[in-house]
Amino acid sequence: MLTEQQILEIREELDSCARPLFLFDDDQDGICSFLLLYKYKKEGKSFIVKTAPKIDGKFIEKINNYQADKIFILDIAMVEQEFIDGVKAPVVWIDHHEPLKRSKVKYYNPRLNGKMVPTTYMCYQVAGDNLWIAMIGCVADWHIPDFAHEFKENYPDLLDKPYNVVGDIIYKTRLGELIRMFSFLLKGKTEDVNKSIKILTRIDNPYEILEPKTPEGRFLYKRCEKISKLFELMRKEVKDTLKKSNDRLAVFIYRDDKMSFTSELSNEMIYLYPEKVVLIAREKNDEMKCSLRSGKIELPALVHKAMAGLNGFGGGHEHACGINISKYNFEEFVERLRRMIGP
């Protein structure tokens, strides 16, 4: 989490700019981090990073074309030095993945102080408002924040079931419905996603989306309904496959150029089968885009070892990693993982 001094520093960075650009990861932690800072600043432009949680030189021209006077990077695991050197505006980077050393950037990462909270949590510390958005982003990132009790007092009908673990909230409560809706709104064509993000900046409370109570809320609700139908078809197939699998490493591969559900599927399957290690892989072009989850085994070191000498990259949290690897190296990667994980 941020110190009081860091909170003041980030607020000053927001208060002192007129044309900020927010780059963020394409998950609930990323979008909620953006929404919290945008609603605080009430200015700026969103830029969702959908290809991979990595920002490098390929982004420089597009970012410079916006002519931002400050760039905020939220919940992105990897930012290359060439990007920081190449953009014309100062960079503020708020993240919670494995710390990296970069120069000419204001970098905030709780792991540097031995802490572990989602980026949403830090952005809520800065913004100090929109508790419901903060709760969505934190719980979606499998973290029950210390303001959960305050949320329950304000929204008792959303945290409407008892819970022992984060998955109970995500898959059994009305708050979990919101979490899934935020995920689905980030799926599909870029223009549809950007329209949904713009509408989300105008939503003032969760009931606008859940019930829905406004034209903006109804648009988001209907879009979620369409995507949910696609997800449910795949969810059933994955669940049936894993139920039949005796392997500790359970692998499911699908091919779809339109929409990715790897993260959503892997999260739910590890909740249902916590004794397994779950790998959901989506083949697109010549790449396998994967989500790896475990209940107990720490994954980053295994991923780095299994990836050695192969064409790809990956990493993330202790029990949740994202991986991009050439489809020609994928079988070797899986076999290495299987040997390290054991029967």
Provide a compact summary of the structure.
46% of the residues lie in helices and 18% in strands. The protein contains 15 helices and twelve strands. The chain starts with a helix and ends with a helix.
Shape: globular
CATH architecture of the largest domain: Alpha-Beta Complex
Give helix and strand order, one letter per element, not per position. HEHEEHEEHEEHHHHHHHHEHEEHEEH
The amount of beta strand, in percent, is 15-25%
- With strands numbered from the N-terminus, the spatial order across the biggest sheet is 2-1-4-6-7
Give the helix proportion (percent range).
Answer: 40-55%
**What name does CATH use for the topology of the largest domain?**
inorganic pyrophosphatase (n-terminal core)
- Mean pLDDT score, rounded? 93
Domain unit count = 2
Distance between the termini: 38 Å
Secondary-structure-based class equals: alpha/beta
Sequence stretches where pLDDT stays below 50 over 5 or more residues: none
Radius of gyration: 20 Å
Keywords summarizing the entry:
Diaminopimelate Epimerase, Chain A, domain 1, 15 helices, five-stranded mixed β-sheet, alpha/beta, 343 residues, 2 domains
